[in-house]
Amino acid sequence: QVQLRESGPGLVKPSQTLSLTCTVSGGSITSGYYFWSWVRRPPGKGLEWMGAIHYDGSIYYSPSLKSRTSISRDTSKGQFSLQLSSVTPEDTAVYYCAAGLVLAPADHEYDFWGQGTQVTVSS
Length: 123
Description:
Number of helices: 0
Number of strands: 11
Distance between the termini: 40 Å
Radius of gyration: 13 Å
Helix content: under 10%
């Protein structure tokens, strides 16, 4: 049974880098054919897929965020991470890590979700 949990600071200042880590338990991020994704929901808006790392290490990004986004993994710790640089208040959102067998799936197509973590960008 795969379980995901997000961790990281809840407040980030404008122009700084937002950093979050997803810890995976009950499964391996290097097997099982899953895409391990970062997704966010800004206030009053829909879910936005940000990017993913596949079990084989391939990395994919949303075109709208590619220039500011970096996804990496630490296989020894069972973790994958998100870095979003040059943040503005528009990056305020609930951030989720999630897993599924499809790249950039619809909301209902994810198989596993973290609980989500609120990140506020404010000075």
